[in-house]
Specification:
The complex is a heterotrimer of chains A (340), B (344) and C (144). With 340 residues, chain A is of the alpha+beta class. Chain A is 30% helix and 22% strand. Chain A has one domain. Chain A has eleven helices and twelve strands. In chain A, the strands form two sheets. Chain A has an eight-stranded mixed sheet with strand order 3-2-6-7-8-9-1-10. Chain A has a four-stranded antiparallel sheet with strand order 5-4-12-11, with no helix packed on it. Chain A is globular. In chain B, strand 3, helix 3 (87-98) and strand 4 (107-112) form a beta-alpha-beta unit. In chain B, helix 7 (195-201) packs across helix 13 (303-317) and helix 8 (205-218) crosses helix 11. With 144 residues, chain C is α/β, with parallel strands linked by helices. Chain C has one domain (18-135). Chain C has four helices and four strands, in the order βαβαβαβα. The radius of gyration of chain C is 16 Å and the shape is globular. The chains are: A alpha+beta (340), B alpha/beta (344), C alpha/beta (144). Chains in contact: A-B, B-C. Chains A and B meet through helix 8, strand 11 and strand 12 of A and strand 2, helix 9 and helix 12 of B.
Chain lengths: 340, 344, 144
């Protein structure tokens, strides 16, 4: 389904989504991030600092509440989320491509009910990147494209005074149907304009790092090389790169006790860059320095995930590069690994 | 203006003469126009050193990192290290000296004066360029910054793009140094020290809580603020389980009985506990390098918490971290005339 | 008959009181043996010296639901360890300022000097604190 949406009609389309929770990019506290949309949605964003993964995999998820009163049987109350349908606008194609990768992780061996309770209700409305939103974008080098539809339910393309809107999945088409009065049919001219815009977008300069297919072998070849320690020499071991990543999905589970015998079991994001991530109870830590942790992050994205799921886990959004406090650059790391 | 060549030559000299095992400085990064930290070990590498308004990092952090590495090493290398230090960075070195983290002869401070400017705030720069990226950022001489973009070169008043910490900087020239490059300027025409804190204090308690609740709620608990701080060097941080020092000798009982002060959930109360504990732990130690605020991915104004306490230290106890490093630390000393009226 | 759990519960302040064992803790004992009537809302925690109170204890008490935190030590000049209370005064002044800065109500954190002979003063400090907290209501800002 292909339609045209005049820019001033975006409001009407959003208004037609009653009963849904609508989120979109918003510029607040000097950063772009997703926020609940009220009325208008500002789609002039670069990329949001947080990724779209948090809609299905929030930083904190309560699994169940427990209570053990003296003399009674312990009680467990499951807390499976029951969200309303959630429509997220302004999803960049790199983030969109992240979601099918997360879906694989949360369903291949075990279908994670908490993840899927949210994911099933999630509708992603993408916005093609007519120009790179950061100097560190590398979606094309990572096998994607600035106008990729993968993982998105709808793809919008900015054509100056109007958006071209393409329904990609049945869920997406349904959301377009609900706002049908806001749309016009796309003419042949519109379709040509979209094709031209997409073609031009793919020609915008981006970061590169050599041959994607050769990288798994390059990582294997350099597994024990000193380059990891050298590249991680100034790493401070914070969690920015993985917490902002659209595909990092590691988590920790803790019991948070509020009063004796009562509390919640909670899943929170965890992070392979933290020292206790692999800390054994004996005190031994198999990844006890920052070089090993950098290698782990890169290998997970470009080697292990390829081995397990036949695709790269990184989608080239460039957040980990742009937000790193000390300039650690996954594209530069991959380039160096490829050439060593 | 500081000529980067002088810094390079001096660094190369230090390495050539074997006076230091390494020099920590700034070089061009691969990610955008900003400089990144580098560690030189060969005189020939000194040519990569740069000095411009994108040298944001407080490199004193890497003195701490080296110290920790040497402590864990079977063959520790305790030769001195050279470090390129701005005014704020040298204050951090001073506090580390005061706390006996290393000895004076173990560090060679290559002081660089920020003169009339300082370092840029990447977010302010991006805003002033309307989202476009800068290719090059240089000192424009005097109180200006020269910026090159794809569209060409332009000169901006430094005030528009300087980091807040630089606008409020009380000492842009490193007092603690072995060599100093650049002029020492006594007067800089920017904001008075503690301007932002005083502005925040002028609002009501309700308004302040609304603000901080909003910010604590947004915290991702990536701990970048703690990781980047040269003075947050505790091997075991009290508020999270991620840096527990566990050795084969740690008993199961010790592990089980460890107090969990703070949960891992990134919610308002837990994040408040984390940030307030951190602020208190930095009282009289924070040198206002502003790194915590710069690295925060969601832009929480963390610097305010620290500068609030630095303001109290200065106004109530006449103490400045990094200036008074020959004195006992702020909270391990007292005077008879300390405030007493708040006590019943 | 109405269900008691449905009735709005009267707010009873919960106060955590860190009391120096050399003075205020003994002062609270004196208040007890003197049969003074005062609010039972303070949970005393005896500590070796007011100087040993880590700011983390205070923050943690608020985090775990205290409506108010009291630290009570020896009068200036009377510290068993010579200077512990002076160090506490400086440190806790900073804690008080920081808590106010982020917007916690100023009356939630209090410090007092109560000697072992001042049972009446102890009762008065606690009563006054409880009264102030009652007007403020429950502390919900820093609690989890």
């Amino acid at each position: 389904m292909e339609k045209i949406l005049a820019k001033e009609k975006l409001r009407d389309w959003v208004a037609s989504l009653q009963g849904c929770e609508v989120h979109g990019p918003a510029f607040a506290d000097a950063v772009w991030n997703y926020a609940k949309a009220e009325g208008d949605i500002d789609l002039r964003h670069t990329n949001t600092v947080g990724s779209v993964k948090a809609f299905a995999f929030p930083q904190r998820e309560v699994f169940f509440r427990f209570e053990h009163k003296r003399g009674e049987r312990p009680s467990l109350v499951p807390t499976l989320p029951e969200p309303r349908p959630t429509v997220v606008f302004g999803v960049r194609p790199c983030d969109g491509r992240g979601m099918p990768r997360n879906d694989t992780v949360f369903s291949k061996e075990f279908k994670d009910p908490y993840y899927w309770a949210r994911r099933d209700k999630l509708i992603l409305v993408g916005l093609a990147c007519i120009e790179p939103h950061s100097p560190n974008c590398f979606c094309q080098a990572a096998g994607g494209s600035p106008c990729s539809e993968e993982g998105l339910d709808i793809l919008m393309t900015d054509l100056g005074d109007r958006y071209h809107v393409r329904g990609v999945t049945a869920k997406g088409i349904e959301v377009m149907e609900r706002g049908r009065d806001a749309f016009k049919e796309a003419s042949g001219g519109d379709q040509a304009a979209v094709a031209k815009a997409h073609e031009a977008a793919c020609k915008e300069p981006q970061r590169t790092f050599g041959d994607l297919v050769a990288i798994p072998d390059a990582i294997r070849r350099n597994f024990e090389a000193p380059l990891w320690d050298e590249m991680a020499r100034h790493c401070i071991g914070c969690g920015i790169c993985t917490f902002l990543c659209p595909t990092c999905h590691c988590f920790d589970i803790n019991d948070e006790v509020s009063s004796p015998g009562k509390g919640e079991r909670v899943r929170t994001w965890d992070n392979c860059q933290f020292p206790d991530f692999t800390l054994h109870t004996s005190g031994h830590n198999p990844r006890d320095n920052l070089g090993m942790r950098l290698r782990q992050r890169v290998s997970h994205k470009f080697l292990y995930f390829v081995e397990n799921h036949q695709t790269q886990q990184c989608t080239g959004c460039g957040r980990c590069i742009s937000e790193c406090p000390v300039g650690i650059d996954i594209a530069a790391v991959l380039e160096r690994v490829s050439q060593s | 203006m500081v000529n980067p060549k002088e810094i390079r030559d001096y660094a190369a000299g230090l390495l050539e003469q074997g006076r230091v095992k390494s020099v920590i400085g700034y070089r061009r990064g691969t990610a955008g126009c900003f400089a990144e930290p580098c560690t030189l070990t060969e005189p020939g590498e000194a040519g990569s050193l740069v000095w411009d308004p994108t040298c944001l990092n407080n490199l004193a952090l890497y003195l701490v990192k080296d110290r920790k590495q040497q402590a864990a090493s079977r063959t520790p290398d305790r030769r001195p290290i050279g470090i390129v230090a701005k005014g704020c960075d040298s204050r951090a070195v001073a506090v580390l000296l005061q706390e006996n983290y290393f000895k004076r002869e173990e560090v060679v401070v290559i002081g660089v004066s920020c003169e009339g400017t300082g370092v840029v705030d990447p977010r302010k720069l991006k805003n002033s360029l309307k989202g476009r990226s800068a290719l090059k950022v240089e000192f424009g001489g005097g109180e200006s910054i020269r910026i090159t973009t794809r569209a060409g070169e332009s000169e901006l008043p430094a005030r528009e793009v300087l980091a807040d910490r630089c606008l409020e900087c009380r000492e842009a020239t490193p007092k603690l140094h072995d060599v100093l490059f650049g002029e020492s300027l006594a007067e800089r025409g920017y904001d008075a020290p503690f301007r932002a804190v005083k502005a925040a204090e002028a609002t009501s308690g309700e308004a302040r809580w609304a603000t901080w609740q909003h910010h604590f709620d947004r915290c991702l608990r990536c701990f970048a603020c703690r990781s980047v701080c040269p003075l947050c060097y505790c091997p075991e941080c009290v508020v999270d389980s991620t840096s527990f020092v566990i050795t084969p000798q740690t008993s199961a009982e010790e592990k089980a009985n460890r107090i969990r002060w703070c949960e891992r959930s990134a919610n308002t109360a837990e994040s408040a506990l984390y940030h307030l504990t951190r602020a208190i732990h930095l009282a009289g130690r924070c040198v206002d390098c502003g790194e915590c605020e710069r690295v925060c991915p969601v832009n929480i104004p963390l610097r305010l918490l620290n500068t609030k306490l630095e303001m109290e230290a200065f106004e109530q106890f006449d103490y400045q971290a990094g200036r008074d490093y020959d004195r006992p630390a702020l909270i391990s000393s007292f005077r008879d005339e300390d405030p007493n009226s708040f006590i019943r | 008959m109405s269900d008691p759990s449905q009735e709005p519960q009267k707010f009873e302040p919960r106060i955590v009181a860190f009391l120096c064992k050399w003075c205020s803790s003994a002062g609270s004992d004196l208040a007890g043996v003197s049969r003074l009537q005062y609010s039972p809302n303070a949970t005393p925690i005896t500590i070796p010296c007011s100087g040993s109170v880590s700011p983390l204890y205070i923050l943690s008490a608020f985090n775990k639901g205290a409506d108010g935190v009291l630290v009570s030590g020896c009068h200036p000049g009377d510290c068993h360890y010579m200077e512990g209370n002076y160090l506490a005064r400086r440190k806790l002044y900073l804690v008080k300022e920081l808590l106010q800065f982020v917007g916690l109500e100023p009356d939630r954190f209090r410090m007092s000097w109560v000697s072992a002979a001042e049972g009446a003063k102890f009762a008065q400090v606690v009563d006054g604190f409880v009264k102030d907290i009652r007007t403020l209501g429950p502390q919900n800002r820093l609690r989890r």
